[in-house]
Design a protein that fits this description.
heterodimer, A: about 325 residues, mainly alpha, ABC transporter involved in vitamin B12 uptake, BtuC, two-stranded antiparallel sheet, 14 helices, 4 strands, globular, B: about 525 residues, alpha/beta, Rossmann fold, six-stranded mixed sheet, about 25% strand
Chain lengths: ~325, ~525
């Protein structure tokens, strides 16, 4: 699989962007900025890793933002109201998310419904359920939370590589291995190539669909837990629109929105580019933070145009006749 | 053709297989026997039950009655995957592989070699390269399959099937989209598989290929078994009789008194017409009431000539005149305005609009010619549709049926009707009989003759030389993207055309069709 070129372009955009920021703000190039970039975007990186699988398989998951919101409320209430130990609450919510994702995958497969509609329904369901539990922000004061937020690997230069940043990096690394080096990963690409063909080749399409959406929802749940660490609270309005940010990160990372091609590493770069823009705006201090959205929009457009252009070139070149030798 | 000494032991036995869809009895107590190491043609007109038989055997459809034995053991697969596991693999015309994955992944998807749950990529590529080398295919297996030609994709699909311990390999119209050279490669693979003791079932429309490669032939008609014969003992005319179930007047090589027909004045003339790197400049004059055949191998420039004439490609040299007046054909729109029509080769992708009804498909070109400002009323449309349905005997005669539900032959007739509705002076037909069963084939040829009797000029492209010989008043022979010869009158016969194609070092192995 040639997955290098789009990722290479994404990497270049990131490096050039970082260099430009450094030119303007000399103390930009520090471990502190880099570590904060990872910490601030930890939950987005995790959820976007899951989204990468879904999009490569030819689907979409609009429910992830709501699942994050639901998770923060669930975790906060379970710990603060019910007095559950945090780890028990985490296990419960991850199981719940797995069931939720599996249900969406099953509906998509069994009723042959468009993932867009099914996960849109999932999005309303999860958001509605989180409002049902609580409409207020619930602070979390469990000791585990302060332990986690105090923990950090400290590289030289004053940076703090926090626990949640490490979790995100681990998820991305595990996701990359899963996608590129396992049968499951090959099947994900296969599904994005053609569902019917994949089925004819003997791949259990139904269980693959269920597992892919399960993976996405579980990672959304994990992102929700990370988000609750990040804010030390549960709030039903948190992570609104994150599904779109993560789709943007996936596409900027070089994954084909129609499926069949892409990479998790590219997605991480897509997340970091969005974070970079936000950081630049913070450094500048005078710009409205909404510029993040505008620049993200422009980048997204540029990347989709680029993908179309590259597809067009590939199509014009046509299939090669080379390689048929009669001995 | 492989000589058959004695019929080997039965590998796949189908006995009394029946299948109905609602009230339609698609298969009625069909028997079929495949022996190890033979290439067995499964023939029949469209609707004879070939596909149903294959799908019932491979578990795509459940069967109503009958048994299937593989190597003496009864098998009843419930899915295509179960059939593959049992040892019966199918490769369809549309290659069912994933163009976005590497060749190696396509060969081993779902059964990649793994260690600790991780795919051993290097090992997989080594195995893939070795597997394809058995079929004399030496390609970079790490490249996406979509980068390779359809022939390579077919061989990859076959290699995958065979490697999954297939004892029976079913090839459903594998050669329809291959050129002569690619067909040769595929045949070499099929012969190699037969030598290994694999039984190959070969479904095709090309009778030439049947006689070239098959040991045995089974013919189905209307869901019933008509007979099983060895190829050597079955003359072609007898085979066609079995397929059609009626005496068919010699369809092949029968030159009607075409040249006796009244040929009118020149209605379109092209001089030094060409496009660099596309087709070398040619001279072509088309007269009313005349059929001009374009003969040549795939890729010789036949379709390219047609596209230039129709303005789908712009010529960069020469001139065109219509009724003596110089014209510029910059686009199909210009061509239509001058009374040209074009039925393209790719009926499914460039011709019909599958979801629209027969009526809508018929009035499409006429409406486009009139422009959107002058819509045809519904009753006008219905009148036109009914007139052509009657004229061309389109079945079923229902103007409101989506065209995608019609058979290939009837779709082709609707396309003809579409252009005839515009009352053209010149009609270009690119492979009008491709993928159409024998009966409809003869009917299309009859239509072509009738059309030019009415004073229409026709330019017809076909790979079937006997067909071209049958209806053409003149035959232009192409080779390597240039017009190399023109045959007229009694000079038109297959051997002359082949001679013209084969002249002076034409690309060696690709010498014409037998």
């Amino acid at each position: 699989m040639r997955r290098l070129p789009p990722v290479a372009i994404t990497a270049m955009v990131f490096v050039v962007g970082f260099a430009l920021c450094t030119v303007q703000f000399p103390n930009f190039a520090s471990t502190r900025v880099a570590a904060n970039l990872l910490t601030d975007n930890a939950f987005l990186g995790i959820v976007a890793a899951g989204m990468t699988f879904v999009i490569i398989s030819g689907g979409i998951d609009l429910s992830v933002g709501s699942v994050i919101g639901f998770t923060t409320v669930f975790v906060a209430l379970a710990i603060e109201r019910l007095g559950l130990p945090p780890l028990v609450a985490f296990a419960a919510i991850l199981l719940l998310c797995a069931a939720f994702g599996a249900a969406m995958g099953a509906v998509i497969h069994v009723f042959d419904m468009p993932p867009f509609i099914v996960t849109l329904a999932g999005m309303f369901l999860a958001r509605g359920a989180s409002f049902l539990m609580s409409t207020e922000s619930t602070p979390i004061s469990a000791p585990l939370y302060s332990t986690v937020s105090d923990f950090a690997v400290r590289p030289p230069g004053g940076g703090r590589l926090t626990a949640i940043a490490l979790i995100m990096l681990a998820v991305v690394a595990a996701g990359a291995v899963l996608l590129h080096f396992t049968r499951f990963g090959a099947n994900v690409y296969a599904l994005g190539g053609s569902r019917t063909t994949t089925a004819l080749m003997g791949i259990p399409v139904g269980s693959m669909t269920v597992r892919i959406y399960m993976l996405s929802s579980v990672l959304a749940g994990l992102a929700g837990i990370v988000f609750s660490f990040y804010t030390a609270a549960g709030y039903s309005l948190s992570a609104v629109g994150v599904e779109l940010d993560s789709i943007a990160a996936v596409v900027i990372g070089g994954t084909l929105l129609t499926g069949g091609q892409g990479s998790v590493v590219g997605t991480l770069l897509g997340v970091l580019i969005q974070g970079l823009i936000q950081t630049y705006i913070n450094f500048d201090g005078t710009l409205s933070s909404w510029w993040t959205k505008i620049v993200t929009g422009i980048l997204l457009f540029a990347f989709i145009a680029l993908q179309q252009a590259m597809l067009g070139i590939a199509r014009r070149a046509g299939p090669r006749k080379a390689g048929v030798h009669k001995s | 053709m492989n000589a058959i000494s004695d019929p080997g032991p039965a590998l796949l036995e189908v006995r009394g297989l029946s299948k109905s869809f609602g009230t339609l009895r698609a298969l009625q107590e069909v028997d079929f026997t495949l022996r190890a190491g033979e290439i067995h043609a499964l023939l029949g007109e469209n609707g004879a039950g070939k596909s149903t038989l294959i799908k019932a055997v491979t578990g795509v459809f459940p069967r109503d009655a009958g048994i299937v034995r593989l190597g003496g053991v009864e098998v009843a697969p419930r899915s295509a995957k179960a059939a593959v596991d049992a040892g019966i693999a199918t490769v369809y015309q549309e290659v069912n592989l994933l163009l976005n994955l590497s060749v190696a992944q396509n060969l081993y998807l779902g059964r990649q070699p793994t260690r600790f749950g991780l795919v051993r990529e290097a090992e997989m590529r080594r195995c893939a390269a070795a597997l394809l080398a058995e079929f004399d295919l030496h390609i970079d297996v790490a490249e996406p399959l979509g980068n390779y030609s359809v022939a390579v994709q077919h061989i990859t699909a076959i290699a995958r099937a065979v490697d999954q311990s297939a004892q029976v390999l079913i090839l459903d119209e594998p050669t329809a989209s291959l050129d002569r050279h690619e067909v040769e490669i595929l045949f070499a693979v099929m012969r190699k598989l037969a030598q290994r003791g694999i039984g190959v079932i070969f479904v095709t429309h090309f009778l030439d290929q049947v006689y070239e490669i098959c040991d045995r032939i089974t013919v189905l008609r209307n869901g019933r078994l008509i007979g099983e014969r060895t190829t050597a003992e079955l003359p072609r005319i007898e085979l066609i009789r079995m397929m059609l179930g009626r005496e068919l007047a010699e369809t092949t090589s029968e030159r009607t008194a075409a040249h006796a027909r009244q040929v009118g004045e020149i209605c379109a003339r092209f001089e030094d017409y060409g496009k660099a790197g596309y087709v070398a400049p040619f001279n072509l004059a088309l007269r009313r009431g005349e059929v001009v055949g374009l003969a040549g191998l795939l890729g010789s420039g036949r379709t390219e000539t047609a596209r230039l004439v129709f303005g789908a490609e712009r010529a960069d040299s020469g001139s065109a005149t219509v009724d003596g007046k110089p014209v510029r054909l910059q686009s199909p729109r210009d061509a239509v305005a001058h009374g040209f029509g074009y039925c393209p080769e790719e009926r499914k992708t460039e011709g019909i609009i599958a979801d629209l009804t027969v009526r809508e498909n018929i009035v499409l070109a006429l409406q486009a010619k009139r422009g959107l400002a002058k819509p045809l009323s519904r009753s006008e449309q219905e009148g036109i549709a009914m007139r052509f349905i009657g004229l061309l005997d389109i079945r079923p005669p229902e103007p409101e049926r989506p065209i995608g539900l019609l058979s290939g032959g009837n779709q082709q007739k609707v396309l003809l009707a579409r252009w005839l509705a515009t009352a053209p002076r010149l009609l270009v037909l690119d492979e009008p009989t491709r993928g159409i069963d024998v009966g409809a084939h003869a009917e299309i040829i009859r239509l072509i003759r009738d059309l030019c009797d009415d004073g229409l000029a026709l330019l017809v492209i076909s790979s079937e030389l006997d067909e071209i010989v049958t209806y053409s008043d003149r035959v232009v022979v192409l080779r390597d993207r240039a017009h190399v010869d023109e045959l007229e009158g009694d000079a038109i016969d297959i051997s002359n055309i082949l001679a013209a194609i084969a002249v002076a070092g034409s690309a060696g192995a690709e010498a014409g069709q037998p």
